[in-house]
Amino acid sequence: MIIIGVDEAGRGSVVGPMVMGLAGVKDLKKLENLDIRDSKEMSKEEREKVFEDLIKILDYYDYVIIEAKVINDMMSKNINLTNIELKFLRELLEKIEDDFELYLDSFSINKEKIRQIIENFGIKNLRKIIVDFDADKKYKITSAASIIAKVIRDREIRKLEEELNIPIGSGYPHDERTRKFIEYALRNRKYLEYIRKEWQTVDKIREELFQTKLTQFIK
What we know:
With 219 residues, the protein is α/β, with parallel strands linked by helices. The chain has eight helices and five strands; from the N terminus they run ββαβααβαβαααα. Strands 3-2-1-4-5 form a five-stranded mixed β-sheet. Strand 4, helix 4 and strand 5 form a beta-alpha-beta unit.
């Protein structure tokens, strides 16, 4: 039996991808000697170090990168973020060949509904499903998955900054560098494929820019 944890990083970001990470072990004792916690409680350096140690001992290690343009396209077809996550979660789980138990950090306020949907995937070798709030704090295997997701996403953001040669910041709404990147993209109609266009933060920045233009015109 494989014990599988799954968690995501970047769900609430406005720039860059969302990443779902998967970690699996046959024996949880493998994780005892590692400083595994919820990735949000760790520094970037701590996550990177533990990540490198993790991938050496995990029996299963996987992730999926869901680009902003994919999220935009699916949301334009009225597929909400929860159902987007469920689609890619299913793809991850269907690749597992052994019997397994799943420990998932709930990405919905209705964790029982999420559990039932996963049960209805019809994955025959899925023997047990635990969907819980703060699973990344309660279960080490889910914490391991959160570290994988966060490290991969951070690397993707840095790669994107290097490719575009422009600061992006964390990709989250509270980050001033991220907001400046969104403003630049909206003003110049560049890099829009990297922005979650359906997000309220983007709408607000667009409105602010429009009001600024109107004010300048009136003057």
